[in-house]
Amino acid sequence: MERREVANTVSGTVGGHVVQAQSIGAVHLHQGPPPPGTPRQVRRPRPTFVNREGELAALVRALGRLDEPGPAVVAFTGLGGVGKTELISQFVAAHRAHLPDGDLYADLAAYRHLGGVDLGEVLAGFLRAFGAEVPATLAERAAAYRTVTTGKRVLVFLDNVEQAGEVRTLLPSDGLVVVAGRRRLPGLVLDGAEVRRLDPLSTPAGAELVRRWLGPDRGTDRELDELVGLCGGLPLALNAVGFQLVDHDELDVDQVVAELADSERRLASLSNEEGGVDRMLDQVYGRLSGAARALYRLVGTAPGPFVSAELAEAAGVERVRDGLSELRAAHLLDEVVDPGPGQRFRAHDLVRLHARRTAGELPDRTGLLARAVAYYRARAAAADALVLGERFRLQEAPDAPGREFASKAEALEWLRAERADLREAVRAAAEQGWHGEVWRLCESLWALYHSGKNYGDWIETHRLGVESAQWDNRPDAVIRMRNQLARAHYELGDLPRAAEQLALASEQLALVGEPQLSGVLHETHGLLCLADGRPEQAVELFRLALEDNRTDPHGVVVQSYNVAQALVAAGRAAEALDVLDEATARAEETGDPMLMRLPLVRARAQRALGRLDLAVRAAEDCARRARELGQRAKEAEAFTLLAALAEELGDAALAERARGRLEELKG
Question: How many whole angstroms from its chain centre is CA 163?
Fold first, then answer.
């Protein structure tokens, strides 16, 4: 059953002070309300750090402006690998006592695709970090974010920024914003930001950094100075080369210098940073253990920006934990600090580019990629099965879906955290012609897209899903893909495009025998009629969908809910109550999750009949169930109705209670 909660707007790409340095509802399933917490998302600093006194002083000055209204902004630009991210990590670790409301982090590279950044999803992550409800649209999320950060002493670190416009939507009401990027960002100066360039380490500073690792007796001052010069003063290069020396006691500094100074290995000038770091990484890669090299090749093969131990094990990498430890010690991988379950790691983009070139030479690279895609497809299916339960699906049921995740909330958080990887897995599978993997992945992403409203990803992946289902000669999958694509257009308020997809899907019905497929099309068509002010037609379409789902207990409850909604809209509230009575009895027999949603339609029907006391009772039932499940959006919907009912009843106490809870839900 495709499910919905109407939202006719879209989050998407956009172009004060800033700191810069290097239906049936949206699915928000939790075991209970998210616990209040202080987000701490900026990664831990590394133990060695030198020569950034001026930049740290600029950040301290900005910190002193936190008592002034509006955000303070500082931006750092510079070459990849010059240490922008590490600078901010050092600062945050040293000054967290002055940031009692937390620190947020977003690597915009992970949200950038099709020429822009999905700022709506960045804001969604920030709101979830504060335990706040995530509205459907970009404008609503931005407003909620500003509300949540009003009066807060919070730091927001935006990494890998390319344009000033990417920052403006992400500015909090108060706090400190730090931005990191390679490109000059003069536009931020107009917003009151202090923009500074972070240069490579000087020779003395770089030599001091290496000396701290090696101790006083290893390598001469001349050798260390030459090593710093060959690495271009880039901390990324010095960290990786320094790891070689620390990890190999028998390796002399002059030997490493000689290898790097070779005409075929010499680092390019800083205007060609990528080529220079590439040559240095060739040397580092050659000295890694077999386990670390295998994991490094996976970093270069995996479709998305993140890797995990689970992905590596599924891809056939051996001694994964040893490999992770070695790559992290060499500063080739950093742990991702976010609310997603489990550990995930990312490589610096220069490291990832080198890993891609290294993996490209593998004879079995395609096999490695296939195993990675299969991992994402299987795990997404397990998450979908746990989050949405016994909904109608075309693909085979996953083995023991509960084994993958501890709870529905954890499964949904995994989908959110892996959003970029899942999108790239769909793309990679489509490029390879693995058509069955594409449409199966898309089918499983319903729980993610319908809860997160990731419309850009939703539409892009499902267009690929339609094409792959056609190549796979699966008319049933074509219907499923087009219907899910229609739902994205419907939620965006683009009813003509939604209707077009439904018409194309309907052309395939003669080729399939599964009645539930016609049911999903009737359901979506009914939603279009309801949105278009044609409730009587919607009633008939939902009744057809109900008949198509007679063999599916959950489908019967879902379509009964839709029929009741349409009956209320058509002015037939008494009939709606009869439908709801039967649906509620069925739902109670099976413990169907629709038990939380049915009372809200009942409340609207009772209100339409003038039975306001009964409407209040039903709305309070919905609010209670929603709060138990952590469904803040549905709880807010129930309290909005309660506030209106209180006004009609003249019940001041109920009105005050409803308004108070709505304010809590907004914050």
Answer: 21
Say how many C-beta atoms besides its own lie within 10 A of residue 186's C-beta: 11
CA separation for the pair 209, 211 (Å, rounded): 6
- Listed in sequence order, the residues at least 6 apart from 422 whose beta carbon sits closer than 8 Å to its beta carbon are 304, 376, 380, 415, 441, 445, 448
Answer for the pair 375, 429: CB distance below 8 angstroms, yes or no. no
Inter-CA distances, 533 with 489, 536, 569, Å: 17, 9, 9
H or E element in which residue 335 lies: strand 334-335
Does the pTM surpass 0.85? The reply is no
- DSSP summary character for residue 175: E
Under 8 Å between Cβ of 567 and 578: no
φ and ψ of 488, to 5 deg: -65, -45
Task: Classify strands 345-346 and 71-77 as parallel, antiparallel or unpaired.
Answer: unpaired
- Tokens (6 digits) for 108: 């915009």
| 188 confidence band (pLDDT: 50, 70, 90) | confident
Q: How many residues does the chain have?
A: 667
List the structure tokens of 418. Answer: 């892996």
Tokens of 522: 């009737």
Helix (H) / strand (E) element for 113: namely strand 112-113
Query: For the purposes of burial, counting CB atoms within 10 Å of the CB of 437, is it exposed (0-12), middle (13-18) or buried (19 or more)?
Result: buried
Query: Cα 90 to the chain's mean position, in Å?
Result: 26
CA distance readout (Å), 196 to 19, 57, 137, 182, 275? 10, 12, 34, 11, 25
CB-based contact 524:483 (threshold 8 Å): yes
Residue 2 · residue 520 · CB < 8 Å: yes
Alpha helix (H) ranges present in 507-552? Answer: 515-531, 535-548
Q: In whole angstroms, what is the distance from residue 68 CA to residue 425 CA?
A: 45
Measure Cα distances from 608 to 370, 614, 636 in Å.
56, 11, 20
Q: How would you class 536 by CB atoms within 10 Å of its CB: exposed for 0-12, middle for 13-18, buried for 19 or more?
A: middle
Strand-strand pairing, 345-346 and 334-335: antiparallel
449 close to 458: Cβ distance less than 8 angstroms: yes
Q: What Rg value do the Cα atoms of the chain yield, rounded?
A: 28
Q: In angstroms, rounded to a whole number, what is the distance separating the alpha carbons of residues 432 and 474?
A: 18
- Choice among 32-41, 235-244, 493-502 with the minimum mean pLDDT: 32-41
Q: Rounded to an integer, what distance in angstroms lies between the CA atom of residue 14 and that of residue 10?
A: 12
- The tokens 């700191």 sit on which residue? 19
Q: State yes or no: pLDDT of 266 exceeds 60.
A: no
pLDDT single digits (tens) 565-623: 999 999 999 999 999 999 999 999 988 878 989 999 999 999 999 999 999 999 999 99
Whole-Å CA distances, 136 to 123, 139, 450, 633, 634: 11, 9, 10, 10, 13
Mapping DSSP to helix (H, G, I), strand (E, B) and coil, where does residue 116 land?
strand
DSSP sequence for 93-149: HHHGGG-TT-EEEEEGGGGEETTEE-HHHHHHHHHHHTT----SSHHHHHHHHHHHH
Longest dimension (CA), the chain: 90
Amino acid identity, position 315: A
Helix spans in 186-289 (H): 203-214, 221-230, 235-247, 253-261, 273-286
CB atoms within 10 A of CB 31: 13
CA-CA distance, 485 to 499, in Å (whole number)?
A: 10
The strands making up 194-197's β-sheet, listed across from edge to edge, are 103-107, 155-159, 175-181, 71-77, 194-197
Residue whose entry in the numeric block shows the structure tokens 């040559």: 279
Dihedrals phi, psi of 176, to nearest 5 degrees = -120, 130
